[in-house]
Amino acid sequence: MENNKDAGDEPPRSPMADPTESDPKLETKSETDSQPPPNEGGEDAESAEKKEETAEDVIDDPPLSTPLSLEKAHEDMDQFLETLKQKEEASVEMPVFLDKFLDLVEDKIARYDAGDDRADDSSLLEAVSRISSLMKTVQTQHQPEPLMNRIGSIQQRAMTYLEEDFRLLMEQYRNATESDPGGHDHKGKHVEEQPQEDSENAPEESELDFPGYSEETISSLKEIAGEMVAGGYTAECCQVYMTSRRNAFDDALQKLGFEKFSIDEVQKAHWETLSREMIPSWINTFKQCAAVYFPGERRLVDEVFADRPELAAGIFSNLCRGVVIQLLNFLEGTAMTKRAAEKLFKLLDMYETVRDVIPKMDELFSEEHVAEELKTELNLAKSRLGEATISIFGDFENNIKSDTGKTPVPGGAVHPVTRYVMNYLTTSGDYKETLEQVFKEHSKIERADSTSRPHGESQGQNGKEDEKAAASPFAAQVMRVMDLLDSYLDSKAKLYKDNCLTSFFMMNNGRYILQKIKGSIEMAQVMGDNWCRKRSSELRAYHKKYMRDTWHKVLESLKHEELTVNGKVDKPKLKERFKTFNALFDEIHRTQSSWVVKDGQLQSELRVSISAVIIPAYRAFLGKYAQVLDPGRQTEKYIKYQPEDIENYIDELFDGKPHQSIAKRKT
């Protein structure tokens, strides 16, 4: 017999049988029978003892008259293999029933080749287990090469069937999501219908359906994987597993609506398509992967390769890392698109997604080097988004400064830039915690051309509370934007030639700003109560200035001074006073009815304050001097309004609708 080299810890592949070489049956007992008989009469005690020891080493064969079943052969093989474990000899004589066992296994494989039902795969699995153990034995002992080749050939043929069974079982995740309620697996067994994966389901519900294998299937996968690995077919087993699960992941990503795009394709995509379709799909996919698919995949691989945890970890890392790289490629492409203010909030959504996924990845990837590598890639991706966010804020400031239009907003309405900036900031407030983190971690790349002077230089001493609110980098950034907006509005207010409209414009815009800040809990926290009180004080000042500039002359016309001379009313002066009041009020009504106040509360406050000043003064003036004028046409000519009329006309102010002159209405 030829000697074989010792096998290592990982079972080597079985050698193939030489097709040109015959496959003789190994008759171990015939060799024993051919030995000359011992000296019948002269055995000494030592010879008898040796003979007894030799008899113990030989494994008894079953009686040749009894047909040997595969089950019985398994029992005999187990006994034989157990005996081998207890022997220390380099070579052990093979029993005759070994040939019969190999014949039975070959016969079973031949029936499979002929298309027989493979429902009883368990017997093949048991046979493969013993074949693999036998192969390890013959490779470490001085056994005939034909025997080794035969065992290797049988093992390879059996492993081919196991590999196919493993593949078919792995594909059962497809059956679990198909709608056929009467689906059957490759063995003809009924497969219970599983609900299809729904991307809108909560993770807790979806997690119950993924990866979609029954406990029985997982148990079968574990058994087959164990035999393939034990028999030296680890690579084939892992390849089948990886291919099947990659396909499963592709199916899952497709159902979630996520498509594979290169970085270049993402950069070239229209932003409307990115923001409306692609980014929401990416966010949902990443969250589902971290909450449902990756944990489910980890559980599956740990169960199938329970006996080889290091192998399971490697498979899981390779499988999931490929998916993560796809997702990060999309992120990188998005972060590299042209900067624009409208992109900020979608980038923040992506930033939050990556930030929240990182701790989950640490839990899933237990291998230190894999976890560190993946965590590094995720943090780099998060940094790209953070840097893009801060850069966009710098561009946002520049957009405000770049508006140098010289046309005032009609009617002193809220300026479009005011609406844009405040809506932008209040929406930013929804991301306050995230933006605090972004500016804290990534503010070193702040653009040099942004409004970079320290906030304290432009704000002065606004109180300790404001200083506390502005302590964070994000709060300071918001303060700079607010300062910039105030300067912008000051420049636009100067475009009005009417001082009343200037005050009205600043009051209108200031009120809008204050209400937007108060309406956002997050932005109110950023700006602080002192800022709100200061802004309210400024608004009251604009209000007073508007009232003084607009209605002071009207009130002057209703004064009683200089109307009485020597105890008598000077009629010409009285008539002039009524004419002045009528002209001033008619002009104010005609002009300011077209002014715009969209804030219902401010509109009401203005009308009430005007009525509170004008109507009592007019009622008193009218009550004292109306009877002085001659009844008839003279009274109608100079007394055009009753107090109720004045109140009604005041209620028409600031609705943005030009009204016909009161004088023309009365003609």
From TrEMBL:
Coiled-coil residue windows: none
GO biological process, one term: protein transport
Transmembrane segments: none
Claim: Protein transport is one of the keywords in the record: yes
Ranges of biased composition (kind: Basic and acidic residues): 1-12, 22-32, 181-193, 443-456
Residue spans of biased composition, Acidic residues class: 194-208
A GO CC term attached to the entry: exocyst
GO molecular function, one term: phosphatidylinositol-4,5-bisphosphate binding
KW Transmembrane (keyword) present: no
Top-rank taxon, per record: Eukaryota
Any Pfam family hit: Exo70_C
Domain Exocyst complex subunit Exo70 C-terminal: 281-652
Residue segments, region Disordered: 1-74, 176-212, 443-471
Keywords: Exocytosis, Protein transport, Transport
Protein family per UniProt: Belongs to the EXO70 family.
Function: Component of the exocyst complex.
UniProt protein name: Exocyst subunit Exo70 family protein
Organism: Arachis hypogaea (Peanut)
